[in-house]
Design goal:
Blueprint (H helix, E strand, L loop, with lengths): L19 H5 L5 E5 L5 E5 L9 H5 L13 E7 L2 H6 L5 H11 L3 E10 L2 E9 L21 H10 L4 E5 L1 H11 L6 E6 L7 H15 L5 E6 L8 E5 L4 E5 L4 H7 L22 E5 L3 H4 L7 H9 L2 E5 L2 H9 L4 E6 L1 H6 L14 H11 L1 H12 L2 H10 L2 H14 L1
Parallel strand pairs: 4-6, 6-7, 7-11
Antiparallel strand pairs: 1-2, 3-12, 3-13, 4-5, 8-9, 9-10, 11-12
């Protein structure tokens, strides 16, 4: 029996904006529409809707989390220097993706795409290793899925091996859309804190253009020129390149503090031990405390600057994939408990700060430039300390750490 009216969600916190409903609609009656803060939600065109209910059935977000407890957890470092330096952490994604591409597979992930003069974060597919860097690195923006789930299905039906990476809600959305398991599909989720909107990101990029008097053709949230755990934004074009220490970026600092995520992120059902993918990847934050014995070795001391990942294996397929790249990576056992100490989203969602409403209201009323101004006024004298901290050469920091290591 057809429903007379389709209600996709009753409250905004019950929608993650994954676009599964838009992909599954047989009449293309659903599109994603921004709310006042720029977060996207599905909107039904009643003139096209045939009330079949496919959009309601496909929604994984409003169902129980059917994930599994990881079977193995690893410390992971990609031995390919070029790939690890373009990665946010230890290059786990690029190592797996390279193997898939070498086998004539297809890899899906988030990339910056220039649209109407704006840098948009979208899920795209690549089939050439030369294009892989586009998918590497963290993008602290909710990526636009578009019709990527449909594209994944087409490749799978052709018999191509497909790797799809994304946030846990995007992984579960794809599984709901496909509605069956495929042996030739590898699912990789990233440990997710929450996502700001594309609209807010674009306003921040426009502000950076104005502040630094430059066009911006490329953007990186986690440039590792000065080390893995010392984050710098990087904005660039063909003629100019600018590094910005993360605490001197209002967008980045507000992201880290959890002020700018979409509402459902604070209630995320995937922020727990049960995982929805074949492989879960993330930064191994706090590894120096969890595995101090490693950093007595010069090799691991250097990895501490280049980036170290944590990798959780969630099923036999995931284990088989990681085993197949064993000669390309450094792989050591660790535990979920140790990894989750520095990755709280493996245990619970990001708490919603009391300041979030004020920040978003200011953004809605006056735009991100007003938020940026308020941030720097609020931080005040503290930013002088931050500026000094950002100027300390990486080489000097390494020498101090090496000296401390010898003394202990």
């Amino acid at each position: 029996m057809k429903e007379s009216t389709i209600t996709l969600f009753d409250k905004e916190k019950n929608c993650c904006g994954c676009s599964a409903c838009m992909n599954v609609c047989p009449k293309n009656a659903i599109h994603m529409e921004e709310n006042k803060y720029g977060f996207v939600f599905p909107k039904i065109d009643e003139n096209l809707c045939i009330k079949c209910g496919a959009c309601k059935k496909v929604c994984s977000y409003q169902k129980e989390n059917n994930g599994v407890i990881p079977s193995n957890t690893y410390i992971f470092v990609n031995k390919n220097k070029q790939q690890i330096m373009k990665s946010a952490s230890g290059g786990a994604f690029s190592a797996v993706a390279t193997k898939v591409l070498e086998e004539d597979g297809v890899v899906f992930g988030a990339a910056y795409v220039k649209e109407n003069g704006k840098l948009t974060v979208k899920h795209i597919s690549v089939t050439d290793i030369a294009e892989l860097p586009r998918l590497q690195g963290s993008k602290y923006v909710q990526s636009s899925i578009g019709f990527a789930y449909k594209e994944v299905k087409q490749y799978l039906l052709q018999g191509r091996k497909v790797l799809f990476s994304g946030t846990p809600c995007q992984i579960d959305a794809l599984k709901g859309f496909l509605n069956k398991d495929y042996d030739n599909l590898i699912l990789v989720d990233v440990i997710c804190h929450g996502v700001p909107s594309q609209k807010m990101f674009n306003q921040y990029v426009d502000l950076m253009k104005e502040k630094h008097k430059m066009n911006i053709d490329d953007f990186s949230f986690r440039n590792k020129k000065k080390g893995w755990d010392i984050s710098y934004l990087n904005i660039s074009n063909s003629y100019k390149n600018k590094d910005i220490f993360w605490e001197l970026s209002s967008y980045y600092k507000l992201f880290v503090k959890g002020y700018t995520y979409r509402e459902n992120c604070y209630y995320c059902k995937y922020a727990e031990q049960k995982r929805i993918s074949d492989i879960t990847i993330g930064d191994y934050w706090g590894i120096r405390k969890q595995h101090p014995e490693l950093f007595k070795d010069d090799k691991w001391f250097e990895y501490g600057y280049e980036g170290i990942s944590c990798v959780m294996i969630n099923n036999e397929k995931g284990q088989s994939v990681v085993d197949s790249i064993g000669d390309r990576v450094e792989l050591l056992p660790t535990t979920y408990e140790k990894v989750s100490v520095g990755n709280g989203q493996l245990k619970y969602p990001t708490p919603c700060p009391k300041e979030r409403e004020a920040v978003l209201d200011l953004y809605n009323e006056k735009g991100f430039s007003a938020v940026d101004k308020a941030y720097f006024e609020y931080e005040g004298k503290n930013l002088q300390r931050v500026k000094v901290k950002s100027l300390i050469p990486t080489g000097l920091k390494k020498k101090v750490k090496k000296l401390k290591r010898k003394l202990h």
